[in-house]
Amino acid sequence: MLNQERVEEMIRLAIFDQREGEACKPMIQYFRKDYIVKELLKSFVTGTLAFAIIIGLGFMYQAENIVNSLNTVDMKGSLIELGAAYLIFMAVYFGVTYVIYYKRYSTGRQKVKKYFVHLKKVIRSYHQEDHS
Amino acid sequence: MTGILEFREKLKSFYSKYDIYVNPLLKFILAFGVFSTISRHMGFVGRLSGTSVTLVLSLVCSIIPVNFMILLAAVLIVVQLYSLSLEVAVIALLLFLLLFLLYFRFTPKDGVYTVLTPICFGFNLGPVMPMTVGLLQEAYSVISVLCGVVVYYFLRGVVENASVLGEKSDKTAITSKFTATLNQFLGNKEMYLVLITFLLVSLVVYVIRKLSIDYAWTIAIVAGSLVNFIVLFAGYLMIGISGKIMGLVVGTLVSLAVAFLLEFLFFNLDYSRTERVQFEDDEYYYYVKAIPKMFVPEQEKQVKKISSKGRRSDSGREVRRRLSEEMDIDEDLLR
């Protein structure tokens, strides 16, 4: 005979699996620190690429002016400015990444905890059935 | 009012019952809207702009996740623009890539708002999007709408200047073509005005609807609409854009109506039955305000059979119903 309570719990588990299982997977695979470092590494690649695109678009937009002032421009100073801009951009990008994934990990961890509470209920109900 | 609430419940129950069919249908409609808009305004490649191609792409998109539809739409736009001019296509590709790297890496689920924003602009319903996001999403989701605004103004600029941008040019003109393409959005003052307005609207709506006050959503919607109208009106006067006031009034009013529809569907509370309770535990003192949702149960239509056989059957059903209620079990078990 069907155990209605267990079926309800299993439905909850299945819904969680389907909706948020994939998103919450890292929360049981990594510690918070490792998870955030992994995302920061990804952000290093995507942030650098984004910065390159912004600079590329800026160059295209100002191409004529840049070409015209190529002989008079202070190359060293420009490169230092570019480096400083990159560092500021990356600092902001890393900051945003850290905040977002810190929060996401905390929320995901809470959800996973709830998931395990339901899972325990299911396991307990199987044990009770075996012993009865 | 009761009739409308009943209709809402029916709508909800219909959706929960047939979501397996409704979701693909909604995705199909969205995809059809997106691809037909692209074909209508940027049909530079004849073969990709036909109704049959649009239909096939929409059908494919009805069974794949929304984000793939966004990817497909971006690829289609780049291909169409490539036919117009290589430089324009390169800029479009870089713009899409930048949006992906800067924003959608963090919140891929918000991509749908970026797609819906240009479509809403097409129907003069731009303010609907910041209001919707402010009402239903987190505050940062407004960035997806702002991305949509940038995409809309870029594409609109390209389409309006297609004849100039599409001219065959020698090598020296390539740089000026890049500049001209980028100018479609970087040099567009109206775009900056709309970006600031939408940011303000969304934040105002979000902050007010989160407040613990009665009719928070209604106040948020009205305040958001006012901010939208006042800032855009003042902005148009300052920039010197004329002929937009009528569209602004209509757009704001329709957005207001859409926002109220959203409120009715997602946040319909009965403030007359608000309850305030206070209690405490070892660590905290709690002030709780509970507002019941407006709810009308669906009316069950019962058909009474007059024949003697039917009467017996009805009385049998009645007995089964009472027994099942008494024993707290499913009525079908007593058949």
Please give the structural blueprint.
The complex is a heterodimer of chains A (about 130) and B (about 325).
Chain A (H helix, E strand, L loop, with lengths): L3 H26 L2 H30 L1 H6 L6 H57 L1
Helix pairs in contact in A: 1-4, 2-4
Chain B lengths: L1 H41 L8 H12 L3 H19 L1 H19 L6 H12 L5 H9 L5 H19 L1 H4 L5 H16 L2 H22 L5 H24 L5 H22 L8 E6 L4 E6 L17 H20 L8
Antiparallel strand pairs in B: 1-2
Describe the structure using short key phrases:
heterodimer; A: 132 residues; mainly alpha; 90% helix; B: 335 residues
Task: Report on this structure.
- The complex is a heterodimer of chains A (132) and B (335).
- Chain A has 132 residues and is mainly alpha-helical.
- Chain A has four helices and no strands.
- Chain A has one domain.
- In chain A, helix 1 (4-29) packs antiparallel against helix 4 (75-131) and helix 2 runs antiparallel to helix 4 (75-131).
- The longest helix of chain A is centred in the C-terminal third of the chain and has 57 residues, at 75-131.
- Chain A is rod-shaped and about 90 Å long.
- Chain B is mostly helical and 335 residues long.
- Chain B has a domain at 302-335.
- In chain B, 71% of the residues lie in helices and 4% in strands.
- Chain B has 13 helices and two strands.
- At the A-B interface, helix 2, helix 3 and helix 4 of A face helix 4 and helix 9 of B.
